[in-house]
Specification:
By secondary structure, the chain is of the alpha/beta class. 47% of the residues lie in helices and 15% in strands. The mean pLDDT is 92.
Length: 236
């Protein structure tokens, strides 16, 4: 996929493709739900075609949106939730700031110090995240180990405060529920790669919904539609 021709050789118009991708990533719909919705609008689009569109454009939307994200605060809430892939539970590490804005996510087959460290490294490298002043986590023993290793390596400043208090995770747990609601209609994922690409789309649409993108406020549905179109060079 190139910046100039993201929809080259596509049978359907770009605005139809983006409409299906955006609706799937924003609302709790299955691919078959979207197939019926599009049929009501006079367009016959097979659910497998919509699936391929999501797999192709969800991660691309994430990539194109990153440069336009607003800066987050320096107070992090970190937690992990469960995602079913091929009938097995995997771990989705997620973090929000003190305002509930999404920092980043990391999908992992394991729940240990190494996975937590990979998540922290990815989050620290994001252009929209500020260096944390405090990191709030639950009682998972992997977090102190990961943070200690990053401090020892000089990646995190030694003065960063780690708080292990259960109730401080309420904000991130509420955010988990929204994400789990989106994954429920699909009844789980069939591969790790499929899950990762789809989750990228869920997360970036959640950021857009929260008003994390410059020039688009929370609740501005028209602005959200226009933003996705502009990111892909399509007239809304």
């Amino acid at each position: 996929m190139t910046e100039q021709h993201p929809f080259k050789w596509c049978h359907f118009q770009a605005d139809i493709i983006l409409l299906c991708v955006r609706w799937y990533l924003r609302y709790a719909l299955s691919y078959r739900d979207l197939e019926e919705i599009m049929l009501e609008r006079g367009m016959q689009v097979d659910h497998t075609t919509i699936y391929r569109w999501v797999q192709c454009y969800a991660s691309e939307l994430d990539r194109r949106c990153r440069a336009h994200l607003k800066m987050t605060t320096d107070s992090w809430r970190v937690d992990e939730t469960y995602i079913k892939i091929r009938r097995q539970w995997m771990y989705l590490y997620r973090a929000v700031d003190s305002q509930g804005m999404t920092l980043d996510f990391w999908l992992s087959p394991t729940r240990d110090g190494e996975a937590a460290k990979c998540f922290f490294l990815k989050t620290l490298a994001a252009s929209h995240t500020a260096e944390p002043r405090v990191i709030n986590v639950d009682k998972n023993a992997a977090y102190p180990k990961a943070i200690a290793d990053l401090k020892a390596a000089g990646i995190l400043p030694t003065q960063i405060e780690l708080r292990q208090v259960k109730y401080r995770g309420n904000l991130i747990e509420q955010d988990h529920r929204f994400m789990k609601r989106l994954t429920k209609p699909g009844m789980g994922f069939f591969s790790f790669a499929t899950a990762r690409r789809t989750l990228q789309g869920f997360e970036v649409m959640s950021m857009i919904r929260k008003g994390q993108v410059q020039g688009v406020n929370k609740g501005d549905v028209g602005g959200q539609v226009a933003l996705v179109a502009v990111l892909f060079g399509v007239v809304a």
